[in-house]
Amino acid sequence: MATLPRTERGRRTRERLVRAAAELFRAQGVRATGVDDVLERAECGKSQLYHYFDGKADLVAAVLDHQLDCLLDGQREHLAELTTWAGIERWLAALPGVFAGPTGVAACPLGALAAELAGTDEDVRHALVAAFDRWSTPLAEGLAALRDRGELAADADPARLARATIGALQGGLLMARTYEDPRALSDALDGAYAGLRAFAR
Questions:
Q1: Residues 129, 135, 140, 141: is their CA dihedral positive or negative?
Q2: Do 21 and 38 form a contact (C-beta atoms < 8 A)?
Q3: Which of 5, 34, 112, 196 is the most buried (most CB within 10 A)?
Q4: What is the DSSP string of the chain?
Q5: What is the signed CA dihedral for 20, 25, 28, 30, rounded to 10 degrees?
Q6: What are phi and psi of 200, to 5 degrees?
């Protein structure tokens, strides 16, 4: 059975495996990446991988957590301000910068994994749901605070609105990359904010 590392050396080994898998998944996809590929990139043995992970699905879940942590690190200052409309607007305005790549808008690593894996494995689907829920939770909590103060309609559902906002972000990223036009992402986020404000009171 997989276990969390108890030593610093173990934590470094597990992190090396997760980082190697994340790099390979992003470069060539999950299906095209075998366990042996990850072991070679991480310079680890098979026994080490199966000591920390139950299998490939468990490794995918760890990669999702890692990718989300990296994404959230670039949003921390804004995520703490989502209890006001101004804070939500600033967060949405900052998101294009989070996804700015050297040649345009970068793909969302969570969105890319979801597009490849959703519907292929139930354990992976649950891991994807958990990752997107963790991403949307700060906004849901902020919207709930607005509702408690009477600044959001009493019948509004903060969790659904937050998920819809992340959905608009994912769609905007897809369109921006397809059209090679970063304004498509900004337009989608502007639309998401307008949708949220429709519930303002």
A1: positive
A2: yes
A3: 196
A4: ------SHHHHHHHHHHHHHHHHHHHHH-STT--HHHHHHHHT--HHHHHHH-SSHHHHHHHHHHHHHHHHHHTTHHHHTTTTSHHHHHHHHHHHHHHTEETTEEPPPHHHHHHHHHTTT-HHHHHHHHHHHHHHHHHHHHHHHHHHHTTSB-TT--HHHHHHHHHHHHHHHHHHHHHHT-THHHHHHHHHHHHHHHTTB-
A5: 130
A6: -70, 150
Q: Is the dihedral of CA 27, 29, 32, 38 positive or negative?
A: positive
Query: Are the CB atoms for 144 and 162 separated by under 8 Å?
Result: no
| pLDDT per residue rounded down to tens, the chain (201 residues) | 456 777 888 899 999 999 999 999 988 989 899 999 999 999 999 999 998 998 888 999 999 999 999 889 878 889 999 999 999 999 999 999 999 988 889 989 899 989 888 778 788 888 899 999 999 999 999 999 999 999 999 999 999 999 999 999 999 999 999 999 999 999 999 999 999 999 999
| Rg of the chain on CA atoms, in Å | 19
Which residue from 115, 28, 21, 104 is spatially nearest to 67, judged by alpha carbons? 21
